[in-house]
Automatic annotation (TrEMBL):
The keyword Transmembrane applies. This is Tight adherence protein C. GO terms for cellular component: plasma membrane. It comes from the Bacteria. Keywords: Cell membrane, Membrane, Transmembrane, Transmembrane helix. The chain crosses the membrane at residues 100-133, 262-285. It comes from Xylanimonas ulmi. Its main location: membrane. It is a multi-pass membrane protein. Residues 3-135 form the DUF5936 domain. Residues 153-279 form the Type II secretion system protein GspF domain. InterPro entries: DUF5936, T2SS_GspF_dom, T2SS_GspF_sf. It is found in: Cell membrane. The keyword Transferase does not apply.
């Protein structure tokens, strides 16, 4: 009992000492200053993404050196073509890629200790290839979105040019009322022109970022209209018509490729269930005969 009282008194004295040190080193204005402190410009992601960032933080330097300057430049181009999804930069991408690599090594070692290395290998492969697959899928989705928005965008742009505005003013006007990947790329080209980049260089940069055949045709038509004096409205209408024709042909091709896939799904799902029902009904109907045989 005496020992318990001594322990409680010691704990109380420790708390009093900690509080006294805090009062001696504090100004009493910390909570007031916290209200006026500027918010951080960037915050760490939370959840699983935050865990991946934390795992890759220590290995990001090694990963950058392993990539090399040339691969980093190609990676930056790929990220810009994908529209910088979720604000991802080259550093963030490399850090998360390193985090997935570290996590795959940890899981591979864990499954090896559990005596199941064959289970850890495919998981490690999926984790290490996740970021490249995600970036490729995001860039492909963005390119499809640009191709889908381009005909309507060109129609509105052609009407605006017909109304008497110049190309740059018409493009700015149309971008004000459009959202999406195409309008974002057009606004980026306009920003480059605003800081002194020539129209040709801005349009060529737009073509390189998008990697879309429709955008390439648009850029070629715009450059020819500027150099040769071709009427811009007719060029925009012709490009919109060609893009719609290509989209219709692509839709027909996709529909033709879908038929074998549907047949495969039906064969692998509905047919086994139907056979199971038939066999079960036959066995139930002939239960007495089969019981006599076996």
């Amino acid at each position: 009992m005496i020992a318990l009282g001594v322990a409680a008194a010691a704990a109380l004295l420790l708390l009093v000492a900690v509080q006294g040190v805090r009062l001696m080193t504090s100004t009493g204005l910390e909570t007031v200053e916290e209200q006026y402190r500027p918010a951080p410009t960037s915050r760490r992601a939370k959840g699983f993404v935050g865990l991946i960032d934390a795992l890759g933080e220590r290995a990001v330097g090694t990963a950058v050196r392993a990539y090399g300057a040339q691969r980093l430049r190609r990676l930056d181009v790929a990220i810009r073509r994908a529209g910088r999804p979720d604000g991802v930069t080259v550093t963030v991408y490399v850090r998360r890629q390193a985090g997935f690599a570290v996590l795959s090594v940890i899981l591979l070692a864990l499954f090896a200790l559990l005596g199941q290395p064959l289970v850890g290998v495919p998981i490690a492969v999926v984790l290490t290839s996740w970021m490249p697959l995600w970036l490729h899928a995001t860039g492909r989705t963005r390119q499809q979105e640009i191709d889908r928005e381009l005909p309507d965008f060109l129609d509105v742009l052609g009407v605006t040019v017909t109304a008497g505005l110049g190309f740059r003013q018409a493009l700015e006007r149309v971008c004000e009322f459009h959202d999406g990947a195409l309008a974002e790329e057009m606004r980026r080209a306009l920003q480059e022109m605003a800081v002194g980049v020539s129209r040709r260089e801005a349009l060529v940069g737009l073509r390189e970022r998008s990697r879309s055949e429709a955008i390439a045709s648009l850029v070629t038509a715009l450059l020819q209209a500027e150099e040769l004096g071709v009427p811009l409205v007719e060029a925009l209408a012709a490009i919109a018509k060609d893009v719609r024709r290509e989209r219709a042909a692509a839709a027909r091709q996709a529909a033709a490729r879908a038929a074998p896939k549907v047949s495969l799904v039906v064969t692998l799902t509905i047919l086994p269930g139907a056979l199971l029902l038939i066999v079960a009904s036959v066995l139930i109907a002939n239960a007495e005969v089969l019981g006599g045989i076996f």
